[in-house]
Amino acid sequence: MRAVLQRVSEASVTVEGKVTGAIQNGLLVLLGIETEDSEADLEWLSVKLVNMRIFNDASGIMNISIKETGGDILLVSQFTLHASTKKGNRPSYSRAGKGDVAMPLYEKMIARLENELGKKIQTGIFGADMKVALINDGPVTIIIDSKNKE
After folding, report:
1. Is the dihedral of CA 125, 147, 135, 59 positive or negative?
2. Which spans in the chain are helix H?
3. What is the CATH number of domain 2-145?
4. How far apart are CA 87 and CA 84, in angstroms?
5. What percent of the chain clears pLDDT 70, i.e. is strictly above it?
6. How far apart are CA 131 and CA 45, in angstroms?
7. pLDDT, tens digit, for every residue of 33-52?
8. Which residues are catalytic?
């Protein structure tokens, strides 16, 4: 699994003109699931997401997690995070998980994050053509990959 975390002061996702998820202060998480991903990847990544200390403390140092701030998460599926650009100019998405593999893991990630935070998270719609808007706070953008454990 690969995730792009963006610390935001606001973010939203719109599908067919309707807002399906919106948050104020928190994290926009773009999540890419690949064919080889498992529950172990999901568990490792979800713990990392809620405990990553990328919010400022009283001294202005990034030392507080989303869990500690009480902020919100907007989770958006994005298969293009597993694009391979090694050959040619047209990306290959062969590593990206197909719906029958990726959708159940995406839904489990939603449930796990809600359990970790103790509240509902906002989402896009799996597989839909989505319009994502955000104001990146910092900017702070971090890429995490469960296969590399970084």
Report:
1. positive
2. 39-51, 66-69, 99-117
3. 3.50.80.10
4. 8
5. 99
6. 24
7. 998 888 999 999 999 999 99
8. 78-80
**In Å, what is the CA distance from 38 to each residue of 3, 100, 108?**
15, 13, 11
Q: What is the largest CA-CA distance in the chain?
A: 48
Instruction: Quote the tokens at residue 120.
Output: 């509902």
Tokens matching residue 40:
């172990």
CA distances in angstroms from 123 to 4, 114, 127, 132, listed in the order given: 15, 11, 12, 11
Residue 145 to residues 14, 32, 126, 131, Cα–Cα distance (Å): 26, 9, 20, 24
pLDDT tens per residue across span 119-144 = 999 999 998 999 999 999 999 999 99
Task: Give the start-to-end residue ranges of the domains of the chain.
Answer: 2-145
